[in-house]
Each structure stands twice: as C-alpha cells, then as structure tokens.
UniProtKB/TrEMBL annotation:
One of its GO terms (biological process) is cyclic threonylcarbamoyladenosine biosynthetic process. This is THIF-type NAD/FAD binding fold domain-containing protein. GO terms for molecular function: tRNA threonylcarbamoyladenosine dehydratase; ubiquitin-like modifier activating enzyme activity. It comes from the Bacteria. It comes from Brevibacillus brevis (strain 47 / JCM 6285 / NBRC 100599). PANTHER family: TRNA THREONYLCARBAMOYLADENOSINE DEHYDRATASE (PTHR43267:SF1). InterPro entries: ThiF/MoeB/HesA (IPR045886), ThiF_NAD_FAD-bd (IPR000594), Ubiquitin-activating_enz (IPR035985). It holds the Pfam family ThiF. Transmembrane segments: none annotated. Residues 17-274 form the THIF-type NAD/FAD binding fold domain.
Length: 286
C-alpha cells in the first residue's frame, strides 16, 4: 500500500473521532509518540486503544512470549500466538489496525542500565509491567527525563487503578509511600519493594479474594490473579489518560499524582477519581 493510500486510509479510519475531537487534536495524536512497557493484559489493550484513536508512533517493550495462561485476559493473545513474542505480535496486530502506524519493538527488560536508552524519545510512557522494581526504574527515569508517565494496577478480586506522573507532580515513590524514594536499588531494597505485592495479596482477602490464593501467591506457588474485565478496563483508562496528556485540552485533565483513578467493579461507583486523605497512597492497599 502506497503512502498516499495509507494516508487516505488513516483519514477514513478516524472519521468518527470528529465531533468529539478537533482536526488539530487528531493531528496531535497522529504526531504523538507513546511508549508502552508490557504488552500483556493491560499493555495489550492500551496499545490497541491508542492505535484505534490514531496515535502515530508506538514503542512496545516486552521480552516475554505468549503462553496459555494469558488467554484468560490478554487481548493480543490467541491460541495461534502461543510461544510467539508479545512485542512482535503487538506490532503485527497494530499494523493491521493502522498500516501507517510506526511501531518500534524492543524485546528487553527495563533495567537501571538501559532505561534512559529505552524510554527516551517519547511523549508519554505507560508502565504496564507487573514487576514493582521495574516500575520504580521506569518512573524514576521518566521523571529524570521530564516525560509524563502512567502507572496502573490490577488487584484481586475486581480492583485496579491508574495514575499519571508529570514533571511537576508528586513523584511515584512518594505518591505510593515506597521505602525506596531517593535510595539506591540495592538487593535489600529490591526485596522490600517486591514484598509490597505480597502485602497487597494479603489485603486483597479482605476485599473478597480467596484466602487460599493469597497464601499460595505469597509462598510463590500461584501467579497473580487477574480477571479479563478488570485488566481491560484499567488498560482502557490508561489509554485515555495518555490521550488527555497528548491533546492537552484545558477542560479534560488527567488524574495527576496523588490523584488516582480508582477501579472497583464490585462497587456501585465502579470507577472514580480519588485524592488520598493523607496526601499519598499505601501501595499495599491498592
């Protein structure tokens, strides 16, 4: 397909965006660069939504391949794609949505050593990884480079959250009361960060998660429990926060830290923006 044909397809594809957004805002999306770290349950649907809104450049960072346990929730996973690299599958599907889309693929894990190289040259970073140490590295690096970043959480049984960090906002580690703020990521500190998720699993029992699952998770005998609608709603919300950061409409503001888009599908108010009563959040309770 030629460049002219691609451009015509782009224009036709996003006709229904108009009336909701302006042609100038669509141009902002078309010129935007978004990096998504993780192409799994949340990252996959985030990438799809960004592509379907007309974002022009996406960088997919994920070193994993699809496995059978991904089929319950990950929108890029199919039986035909088991054992295929997630980032490469993402590129194939995203190009099928928009052939003009520029997709960069990186099959690596974000570390302190490579973070600045991997996360630069972008307008927004979406942290869709499930590794808490990697999250600290991602948001530290984003802050250091002055790039807005988006944090997500999916927590049993039906909970989740989305929060944006900007160069002027509360830092991620402060907003989440991490013990690591301004501290080196020594092996001991990495262990403390990882334990946050164990405590979140235990707390999840009080919210309706099964006690036997939480016990098995803490012992390393069970994976994190995730239901498809929760992961996908969180991903959709993350994509919309990225949308807000890109178009910068004065009356459409993102939830900037410490404000949090809180999700609980078991609640009557399933999605709402909340500010923490004490100025920050206890990450073990989210």
């Amino acid at each position: 397909m030629s460049l002219i044909e691609n451009s015509q397809l782009y224009n036709n594809s996003f006709t229904r965006n108009f009336g909701i957004i302006t042609s100038k805002e669509q141009a902002k999306l078309r010129n935007a660069r978004v990096t998504v770290v993780g192409a799994g349950g949340v990252g996959g649907i985030t990438l799809i939504q960004l592509a379907r809104m007309g974002v022009g450049k996406l960088h997919v960072i994920d070193q994993d391949s699809f496995e059978e346990s991904n089929l319950n929730r990950q929108m890029l996973s199919f039986v035909s794609k088991i054992n295929s690299p997630k980032a490469e599958v993402a590129k194939e599907i995203l190009h099928d949505i928009n052939p003009e889309l520029e997709v960069k693929v990186t099959r690596e894990f974000v570390t302190e050593e490579n973070a600045h190289d991997l996360l630069g040259d972008t307008d927004v970073i979406v942290d869709a990884t499930d590794n808490l140490v990697a999250r600290v590295i991602i948001h530290r690096t984003a802050a250091d480079m002055g790039i807005p970043s988006i944090w997500i959480a999916v927590t049993p049984p039906f909970r989740g959250g989305v929060m944006c960090m900007t160069p002027d906002s509360l830092p991620y580690e402060v907003a989440m009361r991490h013990p690591s703020y301004k501290q080196p990521l020594t092996p001991e500190m990495r262990e403390k960060i990882s334990q946050i998720k164990d405590e979140r699993a235990k707390y999840s029992v009080s919210q309706g998660a099964l006690p036997e699952w939480a016990d098995a998770y803490v012992k390393g005998e069970a994976p994190w429990a995730v239901l498809a609608p929760v992961a996908n709603i969180v991903g959709v919300l993350a994509s919309f926060e990225a949308f807000k950061l890109i178009i910068q409409r004065p009356n459409l503001l993102p939830a900037v830290a410490p404000n949090l888009v809180k999700v609980n599908l078991a609640s009557v108010q399933m999605v709402q923006v909340e500010a923490p009563a004490e100025g920050s959040w206890d990450n073990t309770l989210l």
